[in-house]
Specification:
With 279 residues, this protein is an alpha/beta fold. It contains eleven helices and twelve strands.
Length: 279
């Protein structure tokens, strides 16, 4: 069974749509675990009344993404989980999502496997995994490199986000949980996958497992749309800031090969500061 951990804070309409999409799966061999970190919009009541099959854990509003996910993972592991998946609540799953997750997990039982992300509005693919080159400070996007006819099956990558991330138990046994101390909200997923890769686990993006996402709903997208001094500060320093300099620095020092750290940091700082202003 795949234990699916979904951290939530308000936005119950997204949580409901996500869980309803899971109910439509061709393979129902999964268990959903929702970690509600202090929602005030009736999320808890909705889950209790409409989704009694879901395990619900509660936080006090201070867990943020990483600690919420870790609480859900610990619960899953206590229940005997051999496969855990992290999933954001603002996504919907294609009907064969779980079926195709199992398909490739059987082929690569100790690999960490991500999902193909599709725009929920256009139904066009928008993310298929990345390969990072620390030396050149470049990120190669698999969707841009793979011909259309090859955009199926699994493809090797070097980092993955936490949306639809399938993780075998053996990975947690070897490297532990997500690093909530250094990365309380953003970057923890990329850090985790880099840590897993250094420990010898392969990373793949599963182009057959499709998620439908709403990119315009991300806090960082909204932050950039309404530019102001306050939002610029939040972008660089807030715990939910997409360009958080502290998180980026910690990620670099932990994951970038030492010879490339100075250039990678300088380039990254410039992109986060000036990129917000220009774009």
């Amino acid at each position: 069974m795949i234990y699916i951990v979904i951290p939530v804070f308000n936005r119950k309409h997204f949580t409901k749509a996500c869980l309803l999409s899971l109910r439509k799966q061709t393979n129902q061999n999964y268990k959903a675990i929702v970690v509600d970190d202090g929602s005030t919009d009736g999320t808890a009541d909705m889950l209790r009344e409409e989704f009694p099959e879901v395990d619900v854990l509660f936080g006090d509003g201070n867990l943020f993404w990483t600690a919420s996910v870790n609480e859900g993972i610990k619960h899953a592991l206590k229940l005997g989980a051999e496969l855990v998946m992290t999933l954001n609540n603002d996504v919907e799953t294609a009907p064969d999502f779980i079926e195709n997750a199992y398909k490739w997990a059987k082929v690569k039982p100790e690999a960490v496997i991500g999902a193909l992300e599709m725009d929920a509005e256009t139904r066009e693919p928008i993310y298929g995994g990345e390969i990072i080159d620390f030396k050149l400070n470049k990120v190669r996007h698999m969707l841009q490199e793979l011909p259309k006819e090859q955009q199926h099956g699994i493809h090797r990558v070097s980092q993955l986000p936490g949306r639809g991330l399938l993780i075998p138990r053996v990975v947690f046994d070897r490297i532990g949980l997500f690093d909530q101390n250094n990365f309380p909200h953003y970057v923890a997923d990329y850090d985790f996958t880099h840590t897993a890769a250094r420990a010898g686990f392969e990373l793949y993006c599963n182009f057959d497992a499709k998620l439908y996402t709403y990119p315009e709903e991300s806090g960082e997208r909204k932050n950039r749309k309404k530019k102001s001094i306050k939002n610029f500060y939040n972008h660089l320093f807030d715990i939910k800031g997409g360009g958080n300099l502290r998180d980026f620095t910690r990620f670099t020092l932990k994951n970038c090969p030492k010879p490339y750290i100075p250039y990678y940091l300088a380039n990254g700082y410039a992109r986060r500061i000036f990129g917000y202003i220009i774009h």
